[in-house]
Amino acid sequence: MFGLIPKDEKFFKLFKDMTENIIEGAKLLKDMLDNFENPAESQRNIKELEHKGDAITHSIIKKLNTTFVTPLDREDIYELASKLDDILDLIDVCAQRVIMYNVESIPPQAKSLGFIILQSCIVVDKAVAMLGKQSNEQLFALCVEINALENEADRVCREAISVLFDEEKDPFQLIKWKEIYETLEKATDKCEDAANILESVVVKNA
Amino acid sequence: MFGLIPKDEKFFKLFKDMTENIIEGAKLLKDMLDNFENPAESQRNIKELEHKGDAITHSIIKKLNTTFVTPLDREDIYELASKLDDILDLIDVCAQRVIMYNVESIPPQAKSLGFIILQSCIVVDKAVAMLGKQSNEQLFALCVEINALENEADRVCREAISVLFDEEKDPFQLIKWKEIYETLEKATDKCEDAANILESVVVKNA
Amino acid sequence: MFGLIPKDEKFFKLFKDMTENIIEGAKLLKDMLDNFENPAESQRNIKELEHKGDAITHSIIKKLNTTFVTPLDREDIYELASKLDDILDLIDVCAQRVIMYNVESIPPQAKSLGFIILQSCIVVDKAVAMLGKQSNEQLFALCVEINALENEADRVCREAISVLFDEEKDPFQLIKWKEIYETLEKATDKCEDAANILESVVVKNA
């Protein structure tokens, strides 16, 4: 079925723009957490990418409104665009929380989560690039990889929170860091949501 | 496409009943937060509206089961009804939290959020009223407005929580108010979810 | 419509396997909370069932990829499988939280929630068993029952948290138990989500 999709691949191009933008955001977040040099500037840069992402999403919706034949079902294009949008939104929320909670340094577990988020975004980009091009098996394998990264993020987050409850004596600090860890973990959940849409699109068009 | 919808506009009438009921609930919540005179009674009144909302949702589903031709896809009618239902559910949860946490007074940021929720419900009502009637552009503009209100609620909520961490010395109070602010903000998220469904319905039928 | 579904009922068989596995998990969780004898072992057993559930979900998706005619829409089968999967995921998260937070004993409200979760999973199993077999009215009645159980869980959870705020003097303990109660309640939300899918599938095929 996918082999027969129309030549107008502009939607795929827009999705590619989107996932590349997401990777950019994930790199900035990782760098913000790793180096923590000018976090306020990192946050502003991530916010800018988030606005750029919104603009791409908007282009996709506009295009849907003026295109008669689309390579996938209209609602799937819409759904995928909005799930991808959610990933960068969450990356932005993570950066915001770090700034808003005025944290002083970044514990290693938060850096690990930043690393996993970036890995996951890279795999999402690969999976989206395969839409309409490759065998379903390869796309499924990438979705499995995204799920595995989400599981790993979940494990790191759980351990980080356990450590917090063991070591943090200030309840206010505990509340802040618990939420930051959980928000970081949620970014990988959003990658998994996008993978689930990809999987269901492929299943539907099988 | 929407110009050609069948004359049986009963679904649109039921959706209108639903959004008017939601506005009623949002007004009660705003009044509860602004005046805080008899919060327990406000909460009971909101709960009553929430039951009324459930009944309307149920009528829509019943109607779906007995109607052969519907003005929109069956699953979209179902989806939209359930997202609208979620808005009033959240308004009810907000009122419940205020009662359950036995708060003594309402800070200005919570009042601002009550105001934004009401604005957002009014725009949702306008957007739903346009289904099947007006140009897509106007409906899209209303969805943009709902998104802007959600962003504003998000900003107010973030600032309110920052203030909490700066000023509140009692961790129990901080936990309570953090959750109330977040629940108020979530009500505007639910308006945005409804806007997203409206947008996708319009895209689908473009 | 459902009366005319193809004879190949393997999907229904797989869904039945899934809901029976979910009931198994809910029983283990209830037992873990009621007796609290070897919670770490209970948690491991629940995790095992969760992996088994993933395998069944995977079989359903594989089957979707190789089956030409399905008894329901492909996307509905996919959606229902993923919502059922979420129930057991949440049961697993509940067990994990109990272990991770190193709790010493289980308060009666958590036991009540464990009981309600099991009831709800039993009704989900009944509702899924009716897909393609019985009258819509009966399936709707079961969905109403699942909603009622969710409401009851919500009430128990709210009361439990009120009690926490009244009696717990340690903010760290309050944070832990608030989250455990909320996670238990969320498991019944996931049952409701599955009921909503069932309801929408029936509406769609009415």
TrEMBL record, chains A, B, C:
It comes from the Bacteria. This is Phosphate transport regulator. It comes from Pelobacter propionicus (strain DSM 2379 / NBRC 103807 / OttBd1). InterPro entries: PhoU-like_sf (IPR038078), Put_Phosphate_transp_reg (IPR018445), UPF0111_domain (IPR052912). Belongs to the UPF0111 family.
